[in-house]
Design goal:
mainly alpha; globular
């Protein structure tokens, strides 16, 4: 069931950007875990800014492609702590972030009606 329209998804993407940007300071993530959070904040912001959302100025990335990228990122974030050998806070943060991204992905509508509203 897809219940999150594109306009709400865009807002949630900005919340995600803020969460990734604040995580290193708030959760004391250091090293690669901290750097990755900052990188993900920047990449997520850039992706959101160029996606064909309603009200967006740039339409370089379609909503279905945006969704596919987020699904892949969510899956990678859930697996990453074990690949990187992280435990504790970094593991908890990245698994939780991946799960949240996947839940939003499952609930988001990436259909043609949303794309038409963006034009």
């Amino acid at each position: 069931m897809r219940v999150i329209p594109a306009s709400l998804h865009r807002l949630l993407d900005f919340v995600t950007v803020i969460a990734f940007a604040l995580a290193p300071s708030v959760l004391h993530l250091s090293g690669f875990a901290g750097t990755l959070a900052y990188l993900l904040a920047g990449v997520h912001f850039a992706l959101t800014m160029v996606t064909q959302f309603p009200g967006a100025r740039l339409h370089l990335v379609s909503l279905p492609l945006h969704g596919a990228i987020e699904c892949l990122v969510g899956l990678v974030l859930v697996a990453l702590p074990w690949v990187a050998g992280w435990s504790g806070t970094p593991r908890t943060f990245y698994v939780a972030a991946g799960v949240v991204i996947l839940v939003v992905w499952v609930l988001s509508h990436y259909g043609a009606s949303d794309r038409a509203a963006a034009d």
